[in-house]
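cache lookup: miss for this entity combination. No prior model stored, computing from scratch. Input as submitted by user K.M.:
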Amino acid sequence: MPPAYLPDPTTDRAANSHPVVSVRDLRTHCSTCTMRELCLPVGLGGGGMMQVDTLVGQRRRLRKGDALYRAGETFDALFAVRVGSLKTTVLAEDGREQVAGYHMLGDIIGMDGMANGEHGCASVALEDSEVCVLPFDRLEEIARDAPGLQRNLHQFLAREITRDHSVMLLLGSMRAEERLAVFLLNLSERYRKRGYSSTEFVLRMTREEIGSHLGLKLETVSRLFSRFDEEGLIEVHGRVIKLRDRIGLQQLLAAN
Amino acid sequence: MPPAYLPDPTTDRAANSHPVVSVRDLRTHCSTCTMRELCLPVGLGGGGMMQVDTLVGQRRRLRKGDALYRAGETFDALFAVRVGSLKTTVLAEDGREQVAGYHMLGDIIGMDGMANGEHGCASVALEDSEVCVLPFDRLEEIARDAPGLQRNLHQFLAREITRDHSVMLLLGSMRAEERLAVFLLNLSERYRKRGYSSTEFVLRMTREEIGSHLGLKLETVSRLFSRFDEEGLIEVHGRVIKLRDRIGLQQLLAAN
DNA sequence: CGACTAGTTGAGGCCAGTCAATGTTGGTGG
DNA sequence: CCACCAACATTGACTGGCCTCAACTAGTCG
């Protein structure tokens, strides 16, 4: 299994040279997608799977830095990450901005728009990426016929809530070193689930973005990376991180 | 309209003297509930409303301090707050605890259990309270027949996500005084929506619980209340808060 | 009345923020 | 291919906001 930082051939830019966002009318099929066991159709039988297949109308390709959607845009679809990774950022009225989430293969994003019909967050590709478009009206429609899909949709919404709760816990009660340790361990686990190395991966975010996500300043993040490196917990080579002592990282938390 | 801190006759303990949690088999009716325009049946026509009415199987009464559910308990229902208020607290593996939410009339709680079938939070009554029990299997079932209800359910889930995002923003990027100002303004607005005074209300949480919710220590919360009082922004009499200068509070945020 | 919980206030310390200088990397065009 | 530039990252010195520890007050309940 290749380390996560090797170039992924499916993101090869040559296949999609010019348009910032291209729409491919190729039929896509959940039933043959490698992410089907992590994504919306997880656990669905033949019937449900077929219906989900009719749902995915198109894909969108994004180049690094492209916005999948911006705060204020009208919401009409959820998106499943097929290739690459994205960040979502919350924007306050006063201009304050914060990275709310970091999303990778199989994640469902866009739920921030469901509450009032327009997106409360922006979502930006951290590398060349591709998402499946799931028109929401249609999704609700299908969910009414397919209890399994309905259940999955609820699960994904609920998981987002649970995930947010743990971020709140992190932001509200942890010290800087604990936050970074949690962040790294969490990433490691998510890469593992997706079949990538859990001990060596590339951070797709800058120090500033990581800091924003963790409620820290970029200098603090940088200093902590250096310190963790000195202490033998991890190895840092720019954005390439190697976990050397997972237990040690976990113990940072155990100590209250 | 009575200030929120006057005793509410519907919470009169005499009606329910002994059992810590009593189950009343009286039929309840959303269609006549005063909270119907804020709660799950919001906007539903006659048909949808009738179906929701069949959903609410029972109510549960809680005395101050009683747990509606605890972390780890199996999830099988959502709850609608009918009377009183509750807090939900997230619990980390290492014992860390944080107040994740403060819930009042018309709020739907319990969604923290949907992700994996057991509650990730605990929910505790902050005063004598009463909730409607919404068995989740049945709710999903009805939602399949009633698109309006399905939509509402999704909205409530999504609103929870949006709410969590703004808490994340608060915890991740605001200073102590800003956090408290946001907290007070938010409470004020929620009381207003429910027909209570938006300028005078009773905090149902201790300084410690407020601090936990805002990622602050109780001493900091106490000091800030005193300072806001000195500065003429609010008047503090124990847990009774009177907003004196809403604009002033809002300006605390505007200044970056 | 004493024990207990909740709240207030003060003094001092520390963690992370701020400001600033310098180093490193990656993409671009000559 | 290399030089250049801009974005990203590192590191140091200093500051300040919030936490910690502690003492004291007020209200409540047996």
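stored under new cache key. Confidence is low (pLDDT under 50) at residues 1-25 of chain A.
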